[in-house]
Amino acid sequence: MGRGPLSARRTGSPARPSPTRDASSTGRTIGLSPAGGGVNGGMKAVVWHDRRDVRVEEVPDPTIQVSTDAIVEITSSGLCGSDLHLYEVLGPFMTKGDILGHEPMGIVREVGADVVNIAPGDRVVVPFNISCGYCFMCDLGLQSQCETTQVHEHDSGAALFGYTKLYGQVAGGQAELLRVPQAHYGPIKVPEGPPDDRFLYLSDVLPTAWQAVEYAAIPPGGSVAVLGLGPIGDMACRIALHRGAGTVIGVDRVPERLERARRRGVDALNLEDFVDGPDGVVEAIRERTDGRGPDAVIDAVGMEAHGSPVGKLGHRMTSLLPDRVAAKVMERVGIDRLAALLLAIEAVRRGGTISIVGVYGGMTDPMPMLTLFDKQIQLRMGQANVRRWVDDILPLLVDGDPLGVDEFATHRLPLDAAPDAYAMFQKKQDGAVKVVFQP
């Protein structure tokens, strides 16, 4: 699974632009479709109001603000498991009226004067992280750490669409229209023809799962256990199999997710079948990997894991605090539910690798450092560097559908259904694994 030099793997490396304010008068534009926003200066968007309270409201249309912006009319937008963190535990970092969503695609309607790689009428996917393409970090293929868009106020990495004050509080893509900063580099132009589902997951699911497998460093014919079979874990299993893993074990507790993974050739284990809990799961995984444990474990669960009462209590306590206090508590002394990560540490073979793709947010989590050191475990993690992996993934979407993206979504819903969709996804009802909104 070797890779060439990072500098040779960058996609569409732009010249450094010099953004100017209000460049729309020198940009290019085409009219909106009849179903799009722009009617009386307003559009529909999914708006955060409070914990477990999202609404579809009319908000002002976005406009070009600097010469590297673009306006995209959204045709599809995914609901991500990370959105549930905003719905549930990251409320202290949200502001009433924030527009949600970071998995959009659509049609370019307007571009600023310095955007030359895309034009009005182009079909594009918008990566969830916002990166410039020319800074030191982007040159390294670490677009999620882009130095141009880093949120210094919170010592965070690159800005993200629709994802809290920690990541720039940029309006998200669960809306009819989206302003795309750094549009001279970010948007991925895709061909006409196939339905949106063929390309939509380039925004997040595909590169996140691809990076999880890359970081897992599974040897050819080797073994991997994937904890959590939501959208990212499910896709990570598919990619691991596609890239030559010999044994792929999936772990979850939701029957629909388990059956879905089995249909793709995954050896799926139901947590609920083990009366002795994680110990039983670890033993079952070892039985399938010559008694040693897998070469790699991918943690696709993160802080939403079941089975950690201290972390659960911490999440509930912060929801009772004033937002300013709760934000400080979570940012500096937050406690995660570490059940999935602890299971990964126990399950992986000695000298193996743990790839963490599930989101964690705590700062004072107790880690079993002695076990990590004794087992010589390698840890890799981080936000996906979307543009870094596009050249690897796009051919799999143009020439056939080996990863099964065309039928990956379980629910395709109008934007107006967002409040019910969030509740359904959070409660894992109606077989919801992947929800796509179609504004």
Structure description:
Mean pLDDT is 86; it is low at 1-12, 305-322 and 329-336. The protein contains 13 helices and 16 strands. The protein has helices at 81-87, 136-139, 197-200, 205-216, 231-242, 255-263, 278-287, 309-320, 323-333, 339-347, 369-374, 386-398, 418-426; strands at 28-29, 42-50, 53-60, 70-79, 104-111, 123-125, 177-180, 188-189, 223-227, 247-252, 267-270, 296-299, 353-356, 378-381, 411-413, 435-437. Strands 1, 4, 5, 6, 7, 8, 15 and 16 form an 8-stranded mixed β-sheet that branches. Strands 11-10-9-12-13-14 form a 6-stranded parallel β-sheet, with helices on both faces. With 439 residues, it is α/β, with parallel strands linked by helices. It folds into 2 domains: 11-204 and 385-437, Medium-chain alcohol dehydrogenases, catalytic domain (Quinone Oxidoreductase, Chain A, domain 1, Alpha-Beta Complex); 206-381, 3-Layer(aba) Sandwich (Rossmann fold). 27% of the residues lie in helices and 18% in strands.
Q: Which characteristics define this entry?
A:
439 residues, eight-stranded mixed beta sheet, six-stranded parallel beta sheet, 18% strand, 13 helices, Rossmann fold, Quinone Oxidoreductase, Chain A, domain 1, 2 domains, disordered N terminus, globular, 16 strands, alpha/beta
